[in-house]
Write a structure and sequence with these properties.
The structure is a homodimer. Chain A has about 140 residues and is mostly helical. In chain A, about 60% of the residues lie in helices and about 10% in strands. Chain A has 6 helices and 4 strands, in the order E-H-H-E-E-H-H-H-H-E. In chain A, strands 1-3-2 form a 3-stranded antiparallel sheet. In chain A, a hairpin with a 2-residue loop joins strand 2 and strand 3. In chain A, helix 5 runs antiparallel to helix 6. The longest helix of chain A is centred in the last third of the chain and has 32 residues. Chain A is elongated and about 65 Å long. In chain A, about 20% of the residues are buried. The C terminus of chain A is likely disordered. The interface between A and B is large, with 55 and 56 residues. The structure holds a DNA duplex (30 and 30 nucleotides).
Chain lengths: ~140, ~140
DNA sequence: GTACGTCTTCAAGTGGACTTCAAGTCAAGG
DNA sequence: CCTTGACTTGAAGTCCACTTGAAGACGTAC
């Protein structure tokens, strides 16, 4: 029990493939709890690697760090019935779907641009254009 | 010819559905030329609406404002043979395709998360995880 | 003793597209 | 004359996820 392995921040960074600054940053924004100290220096155990992995995973899934923080709290305060993290995931899923739709619009737009088919191009743009309203203040030169 | 209609920046903003600050901002970053002034105030003709529309269109296609600026210059200095804007559009098309790929990964990840299929989840994540390397500096204590 | 490497802290910088603010100008209307 | 509203300017603030820098402390190897 005395041989518990503790890692320096540099070692954690090497193992997890991140910069030390990122680990300190995560701590500063409340994603990671304050670790034990030894002579003023942070010391971690192996679990920190998993924690970093979870954050990385959630980020890959499109969550912002603020959202990851909420997710982690929800996981901890696990009310198994009304799992809020599922709601968050569903919302994010819709966001990602919308993102894909947007990207598809871009593709269509770019392809129209490339082929210089201006009619098609106008069709892509029209829905987002604000109709020109009647002038209310017109200056004459 | 004396009845040429000139618009105030506020009127342009209303017609185009943007804020005046955006118009000034575009001017400040060189997307729009300096307009004529009347008593110190900007006055525009109808073409400004089209210009704003073009910027909006290019943005929808995924170009940054810096890229839009380059696009406009290339359109002006139209060397019809070596049209650089086509190259830019092609590059952007590839960028958008990559973006869609990323979003699809996110979808898969989120769906795996929702179904709590951890094996599938690990498969999604594994390629981007850094393998844990041998410790070089381990603190005991 | 001194050079090296790692750690500590806090502050500020990055990029992109704007918005917001402060302080002042201008013309029209009452 | 005074208010109102739209305009002018430049500077600074916003969001996000970090990184970079400065300045200092500590331990270890030579």
């Amino acid at each position: 029990m005395s041989g518990e392995i503790r890692l320096s921040i540099g070692e954690v960074a090497r193992r997890a493939g991140v910069r030390t600054s990122k680990i300190r940053y995560y701590e500063s924004v409340g994603l990671l709890g304050a670790p034990a100290r030894s002579g003023g220096r942070r010391t971690y155990d192996g679990e920190i690697i998993d924690a970093l992995r979870v954050v990385q995973l959630a980020q890959q899934a499109g969550f912002t760090l603020a959202e990851v923080r909420r997710l982690l709290r929800d996981f901890d305060a696990a009310t198994p019935a009304s799992s809020r993290w599922r709601a968050m995931a569903e919302r994010k899923l819709r966001e990602v779907a919308a993102l894909i739709e947007l990207a598809r619009r871009r593709q269509r737009l770019l392809e129209a641009l490339m082929s210089c088919d201006c009619g098609q191009l106008a069709d892509c743009v029209r829905p987002t254009l604000v109709p020109i309203t009647r002038a209310s203040t017109v200056t004459r030169g």
